[in-house]
Amino acid sequence: RRHTRYEFVTGVQTCALPICFPVTIHSPEKSIVIGGSITNKLSTTVPFTLIMRRGTDDTYIQKDRRVETDDPFELMKGNKLVLQTGDKLVISAKVDNSIDAVFSILQGVS
Asked: Does residue 100 contact residue 48 with C-beta atoms inside 8 Å?
């Protein structure tokens, strides 16, 4: 049975990767990230990094991507990201409480 889950990550803190607001996939089947939006909450440009963690391997989805003020960054833009059970999306920002992130994750994909 498929369903869409929305993950809201707000007030991302500055940190050293790999720590910061992980979104962990718990579905026994594959999941697909079908959308994502990163919003800058400050009046200055803010860089963020998003990685996919599979076990001990990290893959950069975005590295030091700059988000302009009042200009949400659309993460997927028609692309899809397939996640397996235990995978994590880990997001960090260079400035405390500077961005909000929302992910749309379709679960139960075989």
From this structure: no
Q: How far is the C-alpha of 62 from the C-alpha of 65, rounded, in Å? A: 6
pLDDT in tens, 66-94: 999 877 889 888 888 888 888 888 888 87
Query: Measured in whole angstroms, how far is the alpha carbon of residue 95 from the centre of its chain?
Result: 16
Q: Could you tell me if 105 and 32 are in contact, meaning their C-beta atoms sit under 8 angstroms apart?
A: yes
Q: With beta carbons less than 8 A apart as the criterion, state whether 99 and 40 touch.
A: yes
pTM, 2 dp: 0.77
Measure the CA angle with vertex 55, ends 7 and 25; round to 5°: 25
